[in-house]
Amino acid sequence: MAEVCPDLLNLADGQSHILLLLDFDGTLSEIAPSPEEAILRPGNAALLGRLARHPKCTVGVISGRALEDVSRKVGVPGLAYAGNHGLEIDGTGLQYLHPDAAAALPAIARAAGELDAALSDVTGAFVENKTLTLTVHFRQTPEQFHDAVAAVFDDAARPLVSAGLCRVTTAKSALELRPAVDWDKGRALTLIRSRLAPDAFPIYIGDDATDEDAFQAAQDVGGAGVFVGPADATTCAHWRLDTPADVTQALAELSGLGFPGPVTSTG
Ligand SMILES: [Mg+2]
């Protein structure tokens, strides 16, 4: 079980450079009823900007959203942005598009059309077409229809999975269809680290199942995974914060303590 996170500076005790990577929804934003309604929490833009300008800190956001969407939602210059779980990355001199993801584009476009039509009658369910991936959201769908949404999704996804073109992942009240490439937020973290901050101490903060790979990737190289959510949730992260408000507080502590350097106080 993850322990309550002490201040982030304490985690990075004595490190000369920090690579701070964060998820967006439910981490830098509160969970919103729909993807469009999610906004960066007050204060986070200034804190991320301040941290990114620190010579010993590299900052980025890794989201399941499309790259264009997440970079617009955050809108802070000087950050690395990774969209579609890291299949596309842009920022601070790194440009990346996963070479094999393109093969699945026509299939994902077709599935998006099919699912749009099939879910049009289901209250609260809708398709977010992110070109490289798609997500079916059903947070606002009454619970008795959740199985029906899953069945519709399965009908569209199964042939593509069988053909080796796509794979399915699950998130909070969401089902996702992605290219069948061996890639996830953890791989994205490793790529960003190797290209932008090879010896940095990585800290990854996120709230969802798709963040687990990134917690693991950070921890595999001695860094820190910080899960955002309740104490009874299952996570491989060693550390935990309760809510997005606590993430903002943690960023404020990190940006205000003159890191890196010896830790004299754990707050
Ligand atoms: Mg999230």
Largest sheet: 9 strands, mixed
Chain-averaged pLDDT? 91
What is the CATH-assigned architecture of the largest domain? 3-Layer(aba) Sandwich
Low-confidence segments, given as residue ranges, are 260-267
What is the percentage of strand-forming residues? 15-25%
From the 3D structure, determine the CATH topology of the largest domain.
Answer: Rossmann fold
Bound molecules: magnesium ion
Alpha-carbon distance between the two ends: 23 Å
Can you identify the CATH class of the largest domain?
Answer: Alpha Beta
Radius of gyration: 18 Å
Would you report the number of β strands?
13
Which word captures the global form? Answer: globular
Order of helices and strands, N to C? Answer: EHEHEHEEEHEEHEEHEHEEH
Number of domains: 2
Structural class: alpha/beta
For the largest sheet, list the strands in their spatial order.
Answer: 1-13-12-11-2-3-4-5-6
Question: For this structure, what is the CATH homologous superfamily of the largest domain?
Answer: HAD superfamily/HAD-like
Residue share in helix: 25-40%
Number of helical elements: 8
